[in-house]
Design brief:
Mean pLDDT: 82
Radius of gyration: 31 Å
Distance between the termini: 61 Å
Number of strands: 14
Number of helices: 19
Largest sheet: 5 strands, antiparallel
Strand order of the largest sheet: 2-1-5-4-3
Helix content: 40-55%
Number of domains: 3
Strand content: 5-15%
Shape: globular
Length: 678
């Protein structure tokens, strides 16, 4: 609440200082005061409220606390932009022309590299980049780029003066061409050619030396938006490559945090042994700090004969780690907990073995946070993790051995992907190849996204300018004058009619397309689940369900007359992630469908899980319903839906702009002959 109050006070402070009776000096003083407050306030304390304040999402040491997070960079850039809008109302004298020329040269030469350093503060999370995070980077970098370029444009106009200068279309054309060339020219590992910044230097120079025009600010915003899009994209690709390299470098190194957490867990297990079943292992794991840390883990309970009686894998795909019985045997022999680091596989694992009374033991295996360990596609059902909401920044997989030096790294570009190869040591004398892939996407996916981001940036500039225009008081008088005359204007009515003639059907088509894409996405997920359900024989015996769940690698829930009577895993019977009663909406959907199949989204904790249902009647007349969840790692469906959605939005927005422009031309063309007829 205190942060929101300070933000409101700052806005009121700026709006009051921007009134017409206050001069430029007063406005600059207020903006400098607010910028100083941004530098002094601990904005990182609000990281729990919004990722905009999180230093793990963005941090650059360029301007100290002013670039400590995305929010700070966006605020200081917006304040600088307001200051430049205020300064542009004045005119530079002829005696200052030499100074303005020096400023122009400095901005053209240093601007691209300064903005590159600002963009290098982008931090791509291991979980992937969401749309909100990408917009946060784009908006903050764009505001910084716009402020820098506006300084150059102001200097160029003051230095050249009058109507002299280059054509106004040259700079936007160079910026658009440079932005389109960036994905094509990117080289492995995630670097652009050394001459590529010269294109942006030429664009900035041509922008600053262009002829003075009313649309100079919009031209500057377009160039800044194109530059910000390229900076954010290239920096994110560089970060993804670095994440892959850091991931591979840490495969053979034990995480010190995991070691400390395992030592604490060992003390807890010594005091009280967990129940020798999967439910007991899950309850003990969830109650520890290790569970809160989110490390991929495998817990196994052993009896006095050295047999595994229960095994639980959290955050890892199904399977069983071999050789754990030796650690359990050693712990029983030494009669004390042991903590070892394995080196027999590319992924270095920490193994904890704790003996218990009666000869039983518990082993805990901790794997590093690496993409080489497959994640659990059904982690949301047990409430110990979040289903992925974004595509992974990179993928890792084991490859065939090649004759190359151990530890050597080689990045190559193949089409729209970056591929990296490493030879990592395995055991005492072995080695294994690890392969990384970073998907760049093609121009057919990048161009619509870039165009949409440029439009968002331009709308942001118009919003800032409009707020300052209204705060000054001039905007209020302009709105009043417009309200008196324009509603009776034939040109306005004709423009609005022609504009609405395109926009309304286009908006309807965009909304229909989005709903259709959502329906197609659900149908695709339902199809995958239905194929699984068709391969599973409906049975009320939990043992048969367990075997079917293992064979199809999918959790299964069985309902009889609306009541859950069996599961493929005792965990789901104990947790009942969607309740023990069949949802009423599913009962109605199964009754409405002739094929006795249905799909439904269910809330499981903080996750939304898609469930498929298949109904049948057993020989005794009992209505059985078999249910299975959709996998959370089927991200290709989400990618296709997002691609089409972005394309529809871009086409609709471009069509609306074209309709607005053409409606104005048509209105001006028809206005004169109609007035003559009148």
């Amino acid at each position: 609440r205190s942060g929101a109050l300070l933000a409101v006070l700052a806005l009121v402070f700026i709006a009051t200082a921007w009134r017409r009776e206050h001069g430029t000096g007063t406005r600059l003083t207020v903006l400098a005061t607010v910028a100083g407050a941004v530098a002094l306030l601990p904005l990182g304390a609000y990281s729990n409220l919004s990722r905009w304040f999180d230093a793990s999402l963005y941090f650059a040491p360029t301007l100290g606390p002013l670039t400590a997070n995305v929010a700070a960079l966006a605020m200081v850039s917006a304040l600088a932009l307001m200051a430049l809008f205020g300064l542009r109302r004045g005119r530079a004298g002829a005696r200052a022309r030499a100074i303005w020329i020096a400023v122009l040269v400095l901005v053209a030469a240093v601007g691209p590299f300064l903005l590159r350093d600002v963009a290098r503060g982008i931090r791509v999370p291991m979980s992937g980049t969401t749309t909100a995070q990408w917009l946060a980077w784009e908006v903050s970098v764009f505001l910084a780029a716009f402020a820098v370029l506006l300084v150059g444009v102001t200097a160029g106009h003051a230095a050249i003066g009058g109507r002299r200068g280059l054509p106004g279309w040259l700079a936007p054309a160079l910026a658009g061409l440079s932005a389109l060339l960036a994905p094509i020219l990117l080289e492995a590992p995630a670097r652009l050619p050394g001459w590529y910044p010269l294109l942006w230097i030429a664009a900035i120079a041509s922008l600053a030396t262009a002829r003075r025009a009313r649309r100079a600010v919009l031209r500057t915003a377009f160039v800044a938006a194109c530059g910000a899009t390229v900076l954010v994209w290239s920096s994110s690709v560089r970060q993804r490559v670095q994440l892959a390299e850091h991931d591979v470098a840490g495969l053979g190194v034990a995480d010190p945090d995991a070691t400390a957490l395992l030592q604490r867990l060992a003390a807890d297990l010594v005091r009280e042994a967990p129940p020798p079943n999967r439910v007991g292992l899950l309850a003990r794991y969830a109650a520890t700090e290790l569970g809160a840390a989110g490390f991929p883990a495998e817990l196994t309970a052993w009896d006095s004969l050295g047999r595994a009686v229960a095994d639980l894998r959290v955050g890892m795909a199904g399977g069983l780690t071999t050789g754990l019985d030796a650690f359990a045997l050693e712990a029983r022999r030494l009669r004390q907990p042991i903590l070892r680091q394995t080196t027999a596989a590319p992924v270095s694992q920490l193994v904890l073995a704790v003996p218990h009374a009666g000869g039983a033991a518990t082993t805990v295996v901790i794997s590093p946070r690496t993409k080489l360990v497959p994640s659990d596609p059904f982690i949301g059902l047990v409430g110990l993790g979040q289903a992925p909401t974004a595509e992974p920044p990179y993928t890792l997989q084991r490859g065939d051995e090649r004759e190359t030096n151990a530890g050597a790294t080689r990045w190559t570009r193949r089409g729209d992907e970056l591929h990296g190869d490493w030879i990592v040591p395995v055991g005492d004398a072995g080695a294994e190849r690890v392969h990384a892939r970073v998907d760049l996407r093609g121009l057919e996916a990048l161009v619509p996204r870039g165009a949409l981001l440029v439009m968002v940036d331009l709308l942001l500039v118009l919003a800032i300018w409009g707020m300052l225009f209204l705060a000054e008081g001039t905007g209020v008088r302009w709105v009043r004058a417009w309200a008196r005359g324009w509603p009776r204007s034939y040109r306005l009515r004709l423009s609005l009619a022609l504009f609405a003639f395109f926009v309304l059907p286009a908006a309807f088509f965009a909304a229909w397309s989005y709903r259709r894409l959502q329906a197609d996405d659900r149908q695709s997920r339902d199809l995958l689940v239905r194929e699984t359900l068709r391969g599973v024989a409906s049975a009320s015996d939990s043992v048969q369900l367990t075997e079917a769940g293992l064979r199809f690698e999918t959790p299964l829930l069985l309902y009889a007359d609306g009541l859950m009577i069996g599961t493929s895993d005792p965990l789901y019977d104990a947790l009942a992630p969607v309740g023990r009663l069949l949802p009423p909406a599913v009962v109605q959907a199964l009754g409405d469908n002739d094929d006795l199949l249905a799909g439904m989204d269910e809330r499981v904790g903080d996750n939304s899980v898609r469930f498929g249902y298949r109904a049948a009647i057993d020989p005794n007349g009992v209505r059985l319903v078999l249910s299975a969840p959709a996998r959370s790692d089927e991200l290709a469906l989400d990618r296709r839906r997002r691609d089409v959605t972005v394309l529809v939005l871009v086409v609709t927005a471009l069509g609306a702009l074209a309709a607005f422009w053409l409606s104005g031309i048509a209105a001006r063309t028809f206005a004169q002959p109609i007035d003559t007829l009148r």
